[in-house]
Amino acid sequence: LCKCGATSAAKIKALVARIHELEEELEAGRAAAQQLRRDKVNLTIVLEQEQEAMFHNFTRQINQLNAEKRTLEERIKQLVSEKNEAQPLAGDPVLSHDIAAGMEVRKLREEWQDQNKVIEFLRQTISKQQQHLDEVEAKYQLELLGLREKFEEASEASRQARDAIQAALDQSVKSWRTYFVEEYAREKKAAEAMTELIRRLEKPNHMAPSSGAAAEPASNNAHSVTSDGGFDTDEESVDEFVAHSANEISVGFGSLYLYPKTDDSTQQSVPMDSEQSFFAAFSPTDSPEVSGTE
């Protein structure tokens, strides 16, 4: 019984330690999730600020380029109008002016195309920044999902460990209750047998005859135990009842005071002091079998 109790206590301690470990892992997961959320918020704020600043910068540059584009368009229209109005003659300086104006228009068109390329590049940069922000958001969502799954697994493991501890405690209580009920029944049976023995030994007809009195027939003083545990006063002496009751009393009280423990192999009485007899009466081998996860 002591071994069973020690084993159950050791298993319960191990389960409690496991629960503490799971709770620590759970707290670590919660802290990591909170830190991840804070990092996500901070990163989102930084990205939004950078995106907003870049957007304002790009918008300003685009507006500036559009203004320059409109200026170039007006300049081109003006040069074309001047060219159409002029009627140059061969060798006239106006012709040279128109040629120079045409070259300037071509140059302005090239600059305008370059400005369009810059605008397109800025738009692509904004698109890439937005794509990067979406990728970061998706990454943090996956990490949060993983932490949530770990949290659920730790919660389930903690619940199972608590259920196992409760089942072990219930089984242990049940085993101890069964053992003490059986022990009480044995003690009660032994006490009743001892009471009956003392009552019958104290009867007057069990007293030794006086020296002056005549000896009575053996059949009048003889007593024996019947099959139902009673006395048959017409056969043998009361010593047979004492010998018959010795086993029940010895089993019930664990050979504490009346009878020493018997060696089953030799049927000889083994000398034992009161302390050895006491612990022998409560040996763990007498306890019921305990099985399960306790």
From TrEMBL:
<feature type="coiled-coil region">
    <location>
        <begin position="12"/>
        <end position="82"/>
    </location>
</feature>
<feature type="compositionally biased region" description="Polar residues">
    <location>
        <begin position="265"/>
        <end position="277"/>
    </location>
</feature>
<protein>
    <submittedName>
        <fullName>GOLGA2L5 domain-containing protein</fullName>
    </submittedName>
</protein>
<feature type="compositionally biased region" description="Polar residues">
    <location>
        <begin position="284"/>
        <end position="294"/>
    </location>
</feature>
<feature type="region of interest" description="Disordered">
    <location>
        <begin position="262"/>
        <end position="294"/>
    </location>
</feature>
<dbReference type="Pfam" id="PF09755">
    <property type="entry name" value="DUF2046"/>
</dbReference>
<dbReference type="InterPro" id="IPR019152">
    <property type="entry name" value="DUF2046"/>
</dbReference>
<feature type="region of interest" description="Disordered">
    <location>
        <begin position="205"/>
        <end position="234"/>
    </location>
</feature>
<feature type="coiled-coil region">
    <location>
        <begin position="119"/>
        <end position="171"/>
    </location>
</feature>
<feature type="compositionally biased region" description="Low complexity">
    <location>
        <begin position="208"/>
        <end position="224"/>
    </location>
</feature>
<keyword id="KW-0175">Coiled coil</keyword>
